[in-house]
Write a structure and sequence with these properties.
This protein is of the alpha/beta class. Helix content is 48%, strand content 24%. The protein has a single domain, classed as 2-Layer Sandwich (Nucleotidyltransferase, domain 5), CATH 3.30.420. A 5-stranded mixed beta sheet has the order 3-2-1-4-5, with helices on both faces.
């Protein structure tokens, strides 16, 4: 029996998402991936509403049981971190309302799970995502590949936290 996992790379302009099936024992299968994109000309409220509606549609379509989401890391731009934090909050609220089990992971944890090195370069992580999921190419845009990496990190974390 598999567990369906939704991976999320949060953002305001682009939210990367990915759906994988976890069959246990490190066996995973890519199901779908994509991005929620919002226009910068819209108000923050409109953008957050769009993110929520699109997220809810993804959950309704793929019926995940669990979600992994990347935690925020330090941004030099204060305005950027605030808007991304708002989008992340909307995603967490929608996930809670959908009764998804939620795991939160730092970028270092995601890189460690996927590439075996918490300091791995973005290209190395993307190459590993392609290999792990037997894809013909690295998912584009980068946000979708990052969401697949988060989903895989959540899968690996499930294995580590499983009680024998």
């Amino acid at each position: 029996m598999s567990v369906r996992i939704l991976g999320i790379d949060p953002g305001t302009a682009i939210v990367g998402w990915a759906i994988i099936d976890d069959y246990g024992g490190g066996r995973v299968k890519h199901v779908a991936h994509g991005c929620i994109e919002t226009e910068s000309t819209k108000s923050d409220a409109d953008r957050l509403g769009e993110i929520a509606r699109d997220f809810e549609q993804i959950v309704a379509t793929y019926a995940p049981a669990e979600m992994g989401i990347e935690q925020l890391f330090y941004f030099k731009n204060q305005k950027t971190i605030i808007t991304v934090a708002q989008a992340r909050g909307v995603l967490l609220l929608c996930a809670e309302r959908a009764h998804l089990a939620i795991g939160e992971y730092t970028p270092l944890q995601v890189k460690q799970a996927v590439a075996g090195n918490g300091r791995a370069e973005k290209a190395q992580v993307q190459a590993m995502v392609k290999t792990i999921f037997h894809l013909d190419a690295v998912p584009r845009p980068d946000d979708a590949a990052d969401a697949l990496a988060v989903a895989f990190c959540h899968s690996a974390s499930r294995v580590m936290h499983r009680v024998a």
